[in-house]
Amino acid sequence: MVETDDEKQQRQRVLEAGADSDQTFGLRRLNQQELDDICRRHGRFLNCLTGGARANLSLCDLTYLDLAGRDLTNAELNGARLFRTRMRGTKFYSASLFATDLREADLVGANLCRADLRGACLRGADLSEALIMDADLRDGQMMKPGRSGALKALTYDKQATDMSLARMTAADLSFSKISNAFIVQTDFTDTILRNVKLMRADLSHSNLTGANLEGADLTETIFTGAIFRGAILTSAIMNKTKLDGADLSGALFDFNSLSRADTTGAKLPRSLMSLDVGLSQILAGHLVWIDTAGKEGHRADFTSVDLTGQDLSGANLAAADLEGAILKGANLSGCVLTMARLPYADLREAKLIGADLRGANFMRATLIHANLSQCRGGPVHVMGANGHLWPTSFEHARMIGVIIASASFPQAKLIKANFGQGKISDVDFSGADLRDADFTGAVLSGVVFDNADLRGVRGIDDEA
Questions:
Q1: Cα angle 104-198-184, degrees, rounded to a multiple of 5
Q2: For 204-218, what is the mean pLDDT?
Q3: 334: domain CATH number?
Q4: How far apart are CA 386 and CA 358, in angstroms?
Q5: Residue 364 in contact with residue 396, Cβ under 8 Å?
Q6: Which candidate, 160, 64, 134, places its Cα nearest to that of 106?
Q7: Fewer Cβ in 10 A, N or C end of the chain?
Q8: Coil, strand or helix: which one is 453?
C-alpha cells in the first residue's frame, strides 16, 4: 500500500511526538531490524531451541513496523504502541496485549485467540476474518510514572477498550469477553459472536448484518440505531438491552427474550392482524396487479410480516415483496415466486417443493432445513432496450441442512451460500456463481457444476 503525502506527514508527526507525550512517556522505540531479531529469538523459544527468548515488547513503540505473518504466541506486548502496524495473519495466541495501542492496525486474518486485550484501543483497526475466540476485551487501565513521578494512566485515546470504527467483518469472537467496551459504528457484518459476553458495551450505530449472536449475553448492552438485518439472536440474553431505533429486519430471535429489551422505535416484524386487509384479499389484489401489468390492483407487500406456518401453496407471488418476512414452516409448494424479493426472509423448515424461483432474490435469507426439491431457479430475461438476464440469487443465504432434489439453478448467484449438512441430488448448477460457497458435510449426488465458478468453494471434491 503506497502512502500519500498526508499519511507520510502524519507518520512523521507520530514518530516524533508519540514517545514523548505525557500519557505515553517512556516507550522504547524499536526499528524493523531490532523487531525482526526479537521475533527470530521468540521463534526459537517456541520451538525450544538454544538461543531462544520469549518476546517482551511491553511499552515498546512499534508504530508503522511490519509484524505480518509472525508467530508471537504467548508474547508480552503490554502497553505497546502498534499504531498502523502491519500484523496481517500474525499469531498472538494467548499473548498479553493489555492496554495496547492498536489503532488503525492491520490485523486481517490475525489469530488473537485467548489473548489478553483488556483496555486495548482498537479504534479504526481492521480485524476482518480474524480469530479472536475466548479473548478478553474488557475494560482495563495500565498505570505508570509520569514526568513528575506521579502515577498516570497509559492511554492512547479517550476511551478504554475502544473498538469504535473498527472493521470486524467475518471475524470470530466466540466466547470472548467484551463487557463495558466502547464499540460505536463498528462493522460486524457476518461476524461470529456466539456466547460472547457483551454486557454494558456500547455498540450504537454498529452494523451487525448477518452476525451470529446466538447465546450472547447482551445484558444492558446499547444497540441504539444498530443494524441487525439477517442476524441470529436466538438464545441471546437481552435483559434491559437497548435496541431503540435498531433495524431487526429478517433477524432470528426469541420473542420472550426480546420482550425484556427496549425496542422503542425499532424495526420489528409485523403481524398479519396489523395489515389493513386480510391475506386472501392481498393475494387477490396481487393477481389483478399481475394481470393488468400494474395498472390495477396492488402489489403484495409482506415486508417484515410474520407468516409463520401459513399455507401459501400454489399462490402466484411473482414480483411480490417479502423482504424480511417470517415464513418459518410455511408451505410455498408450487408457488410462483418469479422475480419476487425475499432478502433476509426467514424460511426455516419451509416447503418450496416445485416452486418457480426464476429471478427471485433470496440474498441473506435463512433456509435452514427447507425443502427446495423440484424448484426452477434459472434466470429471467428482462425486456427493454437494454434487455438482460436476471438470475436467481441466494448470495450469503443460510441453507444448512437444506433438501434439494431434481432441481435446477443455472447461472444462479450463490456467492458465500452455506449448504452445510444438506442433501443435494440431481441438481443443475451449471454456469452458477458459487464463489466461497460452503458444502461442508453436505451429501451430493448427480450434481452438475459445468462452467460454474467454484473459486473458494469448500466441501466438494473433484469427483463431485
A1: 40
A2: 97
A3: 2.160.20
A4: 19
A5: yes
A6: 64
A7: N
A8: strand
